[in-house]
Structure formats: structure tokens, C-alpha cells
Amino acid sequence: MNAIVSKVIAAFVVFGLAVALVFYMRTLRAERTIAQQEASEAKQGVIDRDAVIARLRQDAKDKARQQQKLDQDRSGIATRLADIQSENRKLHDENEAYRAWADAPLPDDVVRMQSSPALTGASDYLAGMPAGDTVHDASGVTAH
Q: Does the pTM of the predicted model rise above 0.85?
């Protein structure tokens, strides 16, 4: 009977080890699946990061081209302004009629326009309007 009991015990041990091995394999497969998913997500993250870096580099190149064009435009404007100022000085020095015209004071309306701030939108325009002067409907009849 010892032989049968020892065989049954051995069978239970083998069966227990087999069950433990099955559960262990399932755990390993689940861990592998999770690791593969994390690796896939990490790879996608790297791809996304590289795309952002490429876009930022392209933006930097575009900004550099725009800055270069702006610098060229500024240089051209400065050159043109220097030419105009030189021509004006030449005319001022050589022509008595031009000198009299250039030295004359500006009309009051022009001075007032130059002293007011630049209007950059409807709100700037409305801010400069007197508060008491409202515009009435053209179809309305006035009291007087």
C-alpha cells in the first residue's frame, strides 16, 4: 500500500506542479503582452516626438528665412530713406522756393491730426469721440 500511496502523492505533486506551471505560463504571457504593448506605445511616443522635433526645426528654418527677408527689407528701406533725405537736403540747400515752403508752419488742422494718436480700430475711434454728441437716426424728425 505504501507504493500506491507514494504513487498517488507523486501524482498529486506532479499535477500540482503542472497546474502551477500553467498559471506561471499564463502570467508570463500576460506580462509579455503588457511589455509588448508598452514597447509599442513607447515606439509611437518616439515617432511622435521625432515628428514634433522635425516640425519645430522646420518652423525655425521658416522663421530664419522670414527674419532674413525682414532684415533685407529693412536694409532696403533704410537705403531708400537715406537717399530721400539726401535729396531733400540737396533741394533744401539749392532751392530758395523749396526752402521757404519747407520752413513754413503746417496748417492747424494738420498739426491737430499729427498730434492725435493713430487709430488702429473701431474702439480707438470711439474712444476719441465726445460722449455727449450722439448721432441720430436720419429718418427721425428733430424737435426744432
A: no
